[in-house]
Design goal:
With about 300 residues, the protein is an alpha+beta fold. It has 2 domains: about 200 residues, Alpha-lytic protease prodomain-like (Up-down Bundle); about 90 residues, Cation efflux protein, cytoplasmic domain (Alpha-Beta Plaits, 2-Layer Sandwich), CATH 3.30.70. The protein has 8 helices and 4 strands. A 4-stranded mixed sheet has the order 3-2-1-4. Helix 1 packs antiparallel against helix 4, helix 2 runs antiparallel to helix 3 and helix 2 packs antiparallel against helix 5. It is elongated.
Length: about 300
Amino acid sequence: MPAADASSLLRIAIGSVFAGLVVLGLKLTAYILTGSIALYSDALESIVNVATAIAALLALRYSAKPADANHPYGHYKAEYFSVVLEGGLIVVASLTILREAYLGIVAPGSLAAPVLGLLINGAGAVLNGAWGVFLVRVGRRRRSLVLVADGKHLLTDVATSAGVIVGLALAVVTGIGILDPLLAGLVALNILWSGWALIRESVGGLMDESVSDELLQRIRKVISDSAAGALEAHDLRTRRAGRATFIDFHLVVPGSMAVSAAHAICDTIERALRTEVADALITIHVEPEEKAKHHGVVVL
């Protein structure tokens, strides 16, 4: 990744830490004012947001390091470890909230200054939503799993915050105090599900899952359209590692073709693939025509 792009992602990650701290301050204030268990659950999720924003910052810094002797394929997978950590922290937070919700159901309490607390909590939710949309858009454009995961988690936080605000407003209007811990329990279950989804996605990356079927078909078409002079491409394999997409395959050329001509075909294919797939790392194994398998990406 170019140094300018890496620096830009790092600045965004630093911004996530500061945004998380501001939202955390707002939600903790709302909880202290009201004593609401549901707002406590919302504030606890913001603590997780800050911790994971810091982890994302560290992961982006490490993954941006160039390849070295010990890591010849780069440090891209560092992002996955950050996402696993984020998922794990979310699970821990959800279990803590469930405990508080249970205690609140057993012994419901009363709410103090609910209107002011809800307004402050709502301000934090708006800030989270704006920053979450920004992170998802930038993360998808830059192919950064960390930023996309962080943005999606913030948007999940916004949804739960909206539910908490609506539910607590009903609790205040109806006077049914048990709605507060019940809402906290629902928030915890929603957070638990989002944590599991993050862990599942990052484990898939660590296990070298292939790219999506849609992208795989695009890759096959690019190879077929740009391999003029070759006979066949087979044994196509792909995997994702953070922002990078690894692509390797065997390219069959006529046995009489000069090495320089085969190399030129490979250069053409690589340029086309890098235009179609950002941060593609490509390996092509050239073979003579007797190695053709007559399946895969047939060029001629």
